[in-house]
Specification:
By secondary structure, the protein is of the alpha+beta class. It is built from 14 helices and ten strands. It binds a DNA duplex through helix 5, helix 8, helix 11 and helix 12.
Amino acid sequence: MDLYSHIIKLKSAVDVKESLFSGQSFLWDNYENRNDYYMTVIKRIPIIIRQLTDNKVEVISDSITVDSILISDFINNYFSVNVDINKIYAENFMELYPDIYSMLNGYYSLRILRQEPFETMISFMCAQGIGMHIIRKQVSMLKKFYGEKFSITFNGDEIILYSFPTPQQLANADLSQLSLCTNNNKLRAANIILAAKSVVEGKLDLNILGASEIPLAQLRNTLCQIRGIGFKIADCIALFGLGRFDAFPIDTHVKQYLGTWFKSTTALRSLTPANYLILDAEARTFLNPDFAGYAGHILFHCWRKEIKKLHSF
DNA sequence: TCCCAGGCCATGT
DNA sequence: ACATGGCATGGG
């Protein structure tokens, strides 16, 4: 079992309330409580981390080694601290869009996490045309129904957690019971079972897919072979689960800011597969193509918070 | 009541 | 190629 499989993110190490679902990005608190501590759970071991002023990650726990991997090395990779936030836009971005550039100032501490591919794939298959709270509910029910229950002790309290189910566990799931976890959507549940089976049978190897330097379009087309995965979800899996920061998922919010902020006329039309690819190409003219998705995600959160007045991640 | 929420797919033109 | 409706439910 690989190192990622038992990661659970918690919003705050001091006041543990709400775990993030896979696919959510992590925005360091860049406003006031810069010294807040956070906790992540790896292999059922609680790891306490803290943000440093340069958005690097400090691992508070003493050097822990799991499966011959130093946790601090793992954490720094997990939080993609090597990504230079100053190089994610095209070189002339600041001159072309000075207002947007300054508005993005509060969002540079956002880190895209290198999350476990299978967990990311299934989680995003639950994220279609439905509100964030329902997406979160679906993922948490999947874990509760099909994952393994375990507990850790933190600050003297016992915290009950559930690991994300393995491909085998979901492949063997009963359709009607799994539907309870997918907002009663039987089609979605069936698609998840099919996807899990293709992983179990070896027809889909996400680790090989992520490790190889295949072109983004080819990677996207491979993922789109799976029922229930289109361009947007495929790009999300690539961006959040396969470390492909060049993948640029276009959802309803991205479409909106492309039209409003960047005056794309294509963004005013319906998001057909053809228009998706046009928007994708357009975005790469004012973003660094190699980090288009990373930049896009910062724009995404800025749009949601500043314009749409939403506050969930 | 109506519309939208981090879409995808089958069907009809 | 494009438009439309179904899937599903909760919140503004």
